[in-house]
Amino acid sequence: MNNNHVIIMAGGVGSRFWPLSTPDYPKQFIDVMGMGRSLIQMTYDRFAPVCPADHVWIVTNAAYVDIVREQLPEIPVDNILAEPAARNTAPCIAYACWKIQKKYPDANIVVTPSDALVINTIEFQRVIEEALRFTSDRHAIVTIGIKPSRPETGYGYIHATNQQAMEDIVKVAEFKEKPDIQTAKAYLEDGNYLWNAGIFVWNLQTIMAELRMHAPALSAIMDEMSQSFFTNQEKATVDQLFPTCEKISIDYAVMEKSKEIYTLPAEFGWSDLGNWASLHGLLSHDSQENAAVGNVQMYECANCVVHAADATRVVLQGLDGYIISEKNGQFLVCKRSEEQRIKEFSSAK
Amino acid sequence: MNNNHVIIMAGGVGSRFWPLSTPDYPKQFIDVMGMGRSLIQMTYDRFAPVCPADHVWIVTNAAYVDIVREQLPEIPVDNILAEPAARNTAPCIAYACWKIQKKYPDANIVVTPSDALVINTIEFQRVIEEALRFTSDRHAIVTIGIKPSRPETGYGYIHATNQQAMEDIVKVAEFKEKPDIQTAKAYLEDGNYLWNAGIFVWNLQTIMAELRMHAPALSAIMDEMSQSFFTNQEKATVDQLFPTCEKISIDYAVMEKSKEIYTLPAEFGWSDLGNWASLHGLLSHDSQENAAVGNVQMYECANCVVHAADATRVVLQGLDGYIISEKNGQFLVCKRSEEQRIKEFSSAK
């Protein structure tokens, strides 16, 4: 019997891709790569060989439940968990685990973000299965560590203990916040630092025990909530109790406190697609380093990244180093160097 | 009794404002200025004090008849003349004149383009009425000559004979094609050269006599067509005969040949709105010389002209000297210096 389960965290409200992504329809539901599938659909597809559809659990904001149902009709409605309010990742993961426990106490679980991209899905599946084998009969938390390809300052790092081969599952020495560029370069050279992809693997008993130990208040709320799970009281109970959870990340609640944290170094072409620069890096380029999704014609343009999936047609001339983004009748043109201001642009009136 | 009639020529398929203007919905039907009325509606409004709605005649391509009916519901359906094919201005004007002749043989007529802009409509009406008084009892063709405010190379010129005062109606010495910049500067200095606005005033007997003299083949076709006017045979007859007319402009067919051509020098803030530069010049500007129609926010932008009437919202950052145009899900960003290439951009696939 397949005990594998996947929890997909899909509550993000990313504003860095405005107007492509909006609070009404955030990034994870967008076909960012222009491949015909949204990021959450691609995340689901990636796990299909690992676990069946009724073992996939989506935790999202109540506002996005209809989008999830529309985009992932294969997933049972009971498996879509609606957060009445965002409480960061620890309550999100706890809700899913306590719910899985009611039906599948022997579950072996992968937790993943919904909005990251993986290029080599075959290798991804091999890595995930290896991690699941490791946690199937062991009290251990495995975080997937991405071997860095550049001194990236936009990610958190996992400091792995020394290892024989870079394919071994080894103990984590320490988690590291996003570094400055000098530190990132030192990490890259050292070889024992990995990008934290936010993908965690554990069996249900492990994560529940860790949460009970390190987050007893959260666990008490979950125990109370769980009495309503799979009943018609669930929504009312969750709406009442879930918002009383403290806002706390799983990293802070468990990862940094647990003694049984391992990492599996992996290399499958991963990106969190956190900004336009990373999207530009992943899309295919023309000879002038332009990357475009949509019906886009460019004349004398260079180094532009364009996403205009809704527009009938976009013609650009004489732009160098710009982001051009369109969705639903909203349009942005801005220099790539100013992308950190997009949130400001999107909220101005 | 009011004998005044207006013929509005509305057959243009202007592609210079793509995607704002398209062959399906050309410039004359667009609210280019963002004032709530399209150019043809503003043209109609401008003549409202001069002649009643049932004395207004629109000649347009058959494809645009529905748009005209929708935008100008005041005008009787019989007054909307459908050209089955574009044959330049002489057949267009002849069709309208022969048709007017069936009902109003004493008509005194103004012919005007549908896509020009007039700022001072009060002065415009005074000028038009003066010209109509002049032609009401005289065999004369009056062209409205716009006093030039700059050495414009985009317009044809009227060389007026010497005049006592610049307000007099005087004989035209000669029509001049679009000049080069040196010639345009010489015209401006000379003072006897006026912009040809393409606005003509004449009584019906005059223009029919002139056409019979200088364009006998065209007149013969009109004589045959006219037997069907105001009957249910009109469409079939016009569809058959109108395309047999030679393509010829009224300037070439009549203006350059007639002996009785006058010009009335005028100054009422006129523009043919022939390109983005002229639109930029006419819209109000912010402190950075940006001009915008639509819900547009600009950051660090200068010298841009933006028309995005359909878009919900447009945010622009870091653009200097660009045209940004949006309509119906089509979007253009290009340098103002490249605006003569917009037709090329619009037709590329």
Task: Map the helices and strands.
The structure is a homodimer of 349-residue chains.
Chain A: E1 4-10, H1 39-47, E2 56-61, H2 65-71, E3 80-83, H3 89-103, E4 108-113, E5 117-118, H4 121-136, E6 141-146, E7 157-160, E8 170-176, H5 181-190, E9 193-203, H6 204-214, H7 216-226, H8 234-241, H9 250-255, E10 261-266, E11 270-271, H10 276-282, E12 291-294, E13 296-299, E14 305-308, E15 313-317, E16 322-327, E17 330-335, H11 342-347
Parallel strand pairs in A: 1-2, 1-4, 2-3, 6-10, 12-14, 13-15, 14-16
Antiparallel strand pairs in A: 4-9, 5-11, 6-9, 7-8, 7-9, 8-10, 16-17
Fold and architecture overview:
The structure is a homodimer of 349-residue chains. Chain A has eleven helices and 17 strands. Chain A is α/β, with parallel strands linked by helices and 349 residues long. In chain A, the strands form four sheets. In chain A, strands 6-9-7-8-10 form a five-stranded mixed barrel. In chain A, helix 1 (39-47) links the parallel strand 1 and strand 2 (56-61). Chain A binds chain B through residues 19, 297, 299, 308, 310-319, 322, 324, 326, 328-335, 338, 341, 345-346, 348, and chain B through 19, 297, 299, 308, 310-319, 322, 324, 326, 328-335, 338, 341, 345-346, 348.
Task: Summarize the structure in short.
Chain A is built from eleven helices and 17 strands. Chain A is α/β, with parallel strands linked by helices.
Question: Which descriptor suits the 3D outline of chain A?
Answer: globular
Taken in chain order, the helices and strands of chain A follow as EHEHEHEEHEEEHEHHHHEEHEEEEEEH
* Total helical elements of chain A: 11
- Oligomeric grouping of the chains: homodimer
Strand arrangement within the widest β-sheet of chain A reads 6-9-7-8-10
Number of distinct beta strands of chain A: 17
Q: Extract low-pLDDT stretches of chain A.
A: none
Biggest chain pair interface: A-B, 30 and 30 residues
Q: Report Rg of chain A.
A: 21 Å
| Major sheet of chain A | 5 strands, mixed, barrel
Strand-residue proportion of chain A: 25-35%
Helix content of chain A: 25-40%
The termini of chain A sit apart by 55 Å
| Structural class based on helices, strands and sheet pairing of chain A | alpha/beta
Rounded average pLDDT of chain A: 94
